[in-house]
Each structure stands twice: as C-alpha cells, then as structure tokens.
Design goal:
The protein has about 400 residues and is mostly helical. Helix content is about 75%, strand content about 0%. The protein contains 12 helices and 2 strands. A two-stranded antiparallel ribbon has the order 1-2. Helix 7 runs parallel beside helix 9 and helix 8 packs parallel to helix 10.
Length: about 400
C-alpha cells in the first residue's frame, strides 16, 4: 500500500477513471527531465543547469573519453579480465552517449506523442476500453522500474566486486588522480566511476525503455480499434448515414494511430540503430570474459551486464513483431464486419480501407533494416563470431601468458 501511494501509476486505475494513456510514460518522462535534457524550469533554472552540466559532463561526454584515455595510458597494467570488463562497458558507454544525444535533439517528440495519445483517449467511451488502457499504462510503468532495477544492480555489483578486488570498476583516466598512489585516491576514483556509471545507467534506462513505454499504449489502442472495426455494420437499428459516419471515424482513427508512429520513428530508428551496431561486439566480449577470465564475482557482474544488453533491444523487437500481427488482425477484423450487406459505395470504401490496413506498421533502424526479432537475432549472432575468432586465434591464451610473465618479472 505504501508503494502504491508513492508510485500510484504502477497500479491499474479503476474502470470508472478517465483514460490517460500518457501515464504509461509518466515516470519515464520524469527521469528524462532528471537527465538534464529538457527545458530548464524557471523556478529552479540555475539548479537544473548545474545538475545537467554535472551529470552530462561525467556520464555523456567524459566517460567515453575516460575509457579511451585509460586504455592509452595504462593498457599494460590491465589484467585480461579487467580489460574485457572495461572494454565491454566502454562500447556500451559510447553507444549510450550517442543515444542520449539523439534523444536530446528529438526530445520534443515525446510531448507530441503524448498529445496524440490524449486524442486517442477521447475515443474511449466504454469502461472495457478504458480498462485496457489503464492496464497498459500500469504495465508500462512496472516495466520501466524493472529496467531501472536491473541496470542499477549491474552498476552496484560491478563496483562492489571491483572494490573487493582492490581496483576501480573500469580504471578510467582522471587527470591528477592516481588510484595506485594512496587509498583515498583509490576510493575517490571508485566513487567518481560509480557516480558516472549510475548516471550512465540512469540515462541508459531512459533511452532503452522509452520504445517499450510508448509501444504498450499503442498496442492497447490497436486492440480497442480492432474490436471497433469488427462491430461495423452489425447494429440493425443503424441508418446508412450512421454506418458511413462510423466507417469514416474508423478511418480517421487509423490515421491518428499512423501519425503517432510517424512521430516516434526518428527517435526509435536512431537509438535502435546505434544499439544494433554494438550489441554483437559487446556480447562477444562479455562471453569471452565469462568463459575464460572472470572469477565468481566478476561472472555475476558480467551476467547482470548481459541482461542489461539483452533488455536494450529484445523487448522492443518482440513488440514490433506483435505490432505487425496486430496490423494483420485489423484487416481481418474489418473483413469480419458486416460489409457484405451494405451498398456499393460503402463496399468501395471498405475495400480501399482494407488495402491500407494490410500494410503493417514497421519501424526501421536508421532507415536501413526493419526492427524485428529476426534482425535482433542476426545482430546478436555476431557475438558468437567474436568469441570464435578470439578462441581460434588463441588471443585469450596469449593475453593470459603475457600478463603472467609481466607479474613474474615485476619483482625483479
């Protein structure tokens, strides 16, 4: 009950409550505001600007540079396991920064999409339709907090395991700071890296979960629209003018749904494309680390990282497949309506509308390939290619031997 008071939108609203599909993105948009990429509020203008500068400087801009600089300056001091742990996160950090910049440049589209959701909500007049909308909104918010929990668990477990091993989590480069020199510098760098990684995870949750948060209310409205199509022409007391009006309303309803998808396409296409580029490489490095180098604690952190990587693309790709099926079901629902007993003009409109409904709604990644489960699996298969390449070239054994030789030669 206490949790429901704090996060009421995580729970399904009663059927009597008005439909508010925009609540499906309530906590997402609050976190996007805390990312520091929205227009600063007048009341807290200075505080918001300072917070935005600190978070984005450490997580969006400096962290990718810190990884690269750390490799250049201290590459010989990494063990193979430490290097792979850092490298797998480095690729993801670079992609996260790119996704944040894409969302930053198109952030107003979230508000446009919510305005269209409000327009769709006005068409929900029956309690069963509102119940479906309420359920989608509650499920969307719960999924957002699941994302947040998984990402924070990864950042925390990695920091704890690294502290136990006596090294910073990723050994990033910080000017005038040498964590090997003293314990306070070690804990200072560990704290800075943990703050930067928490900020990156916070950003990653927003840029990875928003497609799911906006897809779930869309599918709810598609299901409601499907039932409405199925009932066309089945009321014997309706006059021909009323049936025409309902059919035209359904056509307009479908146009609003398509406009909602058009608003989200540039956002989704950009962020998912960036993630597809790196998901195979990142998973490959993670698998190599787990199989060949990681100890028990590092394996736990690496497995939680794999869960984060899988969450970045897989759920939305599954929803895209479901969305394609929803589109075909719309065409089936219209065909199942009572159009056969109508006049010729009504049938012509139904035929043209049916041809439009048979075209599935497809989201493209970078306008190059469609976002689907098949594309996601193809991208992830690259991880096995990376693992096979490393294993056949004996790169892992060479790294282990070189590290062992350096450790034996160090006392001399």
């Amino acid at each position: 009950m206490r949790l429901q008071r704090i996060f009421p939108s995580m729970y399904t609203a009663p059927d009597s409550a008005p439909a508010e599909s925009r609540k499906a993105t309530l906590y997402l948009l609050r976190c996007i505001f805390l990312m520091g990429i929205r227009t600063p509020p007048r009341r807290f203008f200075a505080i918001y600007c300072v917070w935005s500068f600190a978070l984005n400087l450490s997580s969006t801009f400096y962290q990718p540079i810190g990884f690269l600089t750390g490799y250049i300056s201290h590459l010989s001091e990494f063990s193979p396991g430490e290097f792979l742990t850092s490298l797998q996160v480095a690729f993801n950090a670079w992609s996260c920064s790119a996704k944040v910049l894409i969302v930053w440049s198109l952030v107003k589209r979230f508000d446009e999409a919510n305005a269209i959701l409000d327009e769709l909500d006005k068409r929900l007049l029956v309690s069963s339709e509102r119940a479906r909308s309420h359920f989608a909104a509650a499920r969307s918010n719960r999924i957002f907090f699941i994302y947040m929990t998984v990402y924070v668990v990864y950042a925390t477990s990695t920091a704890v395991v690294a502290a136990i091993m006596g090294v910073p989590s990723f050994q990033n480069f910080y000017p005038w700071l040498d964590w090997r020199a003293s314990s306070w510098q070690f804990w200072l760098q560990s704290g800075l890296e943990y703050f930067a990684m928490l900020g990156a995870c916070f950003q990653d949750v927003c840029v990875d979960c928003y497609p799911v948060n906006y897809m779930l209310p869309l599918r709810a409205h598609m299901a409601i629209f499907r039932e409405r199509l199925r009932q066309l022409g089945k009321d014997p007391e309706e006059k021909p003018e009323q049936r025409y009006k309902k059919l035209i309303d359904c056509i307009k309803h479908h146009q609003v749904i398509l406009s909602y998808c058009d608003v989200l396409r540039p956002l989704v296409g950009g962020t998912i494309f960036v993630q597809f580029l790196v998901v195979g490489m990142v998973l490959g490095f993670t698998i190599i680390n787990i199989v060949m180098f990681a100890n028990f604690g590092s394996r736990i952190a690496a497995l939680s990282f794999m869960c984060c990587i899988m969450l970045e693309t897989t759920p939305f790709c599954i929803l895209c497949n479901y969305l394609t099926d929803d589109c075909y079901q719309l065409a089936d629902a219209l065909f199942e309506s009572n159009w056969i007993e109508q006049d010729r003009f009504y049938k012509q409109i139904v035929l043209q509308f049916l041809q439009t409904l048979q075209k599935p709604i497809v989201f493209m990644a970078g306008n190059i390939f469609s976002i689907s489960v098949a594309t996601n699996l193809t991208a992830m298969k690259f991880s096995f290619s990376v693992f096979t390449l490393v294993k056949q070239m004996n790169i892992a054994e060479k790294l282990a031997k070189s590290t062992k030789f350096e450790n034996e030669a160090a006392p001399i």
